[in-house]
Write a structure and sequence with these properties.
This protein is mostly helical. It has one domain (23-125). Helices cover 52% and strands 7% of the residues. It has helices spanning 13-16, 50-62, 68-79, 85-125; strands at 25-26, 36-38, 45-48. It has a 3-stranded antiparallel beta sheet with strand order 1-3-2. A hairpin with a 6-residue loop joins strand 2 and strand 3. Helix 3 packs across helix 4 (85-125). The protein starts with 12 loop residues before the first helix and ends in a 9-residue tail after the last helix.
Length: 134
């Protein structure tokens, strides 16, 4: 049984987001994450708050020098929306985990693509083998 796998590509972050543009995300939990607000028209979507999301990007850089508590206090003061040091740590850890998972999936996709090409090459090299159509 041979099946054509075809060509496919995982969406890259640069394909989805233009520079400086934040996307709406689906609401998958009860808690609304820092940097987003509930859409009044569609309760299943969260709208991005640019100021908060850019502040989180800056906070990621500050974590290397300062404690989570200090950075969370800075973030709360800058944006006007409270975030605890534990909430900030969880948010950054979750983003790091998602990034690592996406990298692993891309790597596995590359391995699978190479394996399919290798299998096709081996099938083409075989001589005298029975066809699978019989």
């Amino acid at each position: 049984m041979t099946r054509e796998i075809g060509v496919w590509k995982l969406p890259q972050p640069t394909d989805l987001k233009k520079e400086g543009e934040w996307l709406k995300i689906p609401r998958i939990a009860r808690t609304i994450p820092f940097g987003y607000v509930l859409d009044v028209e569609d309760k299943d979507l969260l709208l991005p708050i640019t100021l908060e999301l850019e502040a989180i990007e800056q906070a990621r850089k500050y974590i290397k020098q300062y404690s989570y508590r200090e950075v969370a206090n800075w973030l709360s003061t800058r944006t006007g929306r409270y975030i605890s040091h534990v909430g900030l740590r969880k948010r950054l850890a979750h983003e790091r985990q998602r990034k690592d998972q996406a990298t692993s999936l891309r790597r596995w996709a590359d391995y699978a693509e190479k394996a399919v090409l290798k299998a096709k090459a081996i099938e083409e090299e075989r001589t005298g083998a029975r066809s699978t159509a019989e």
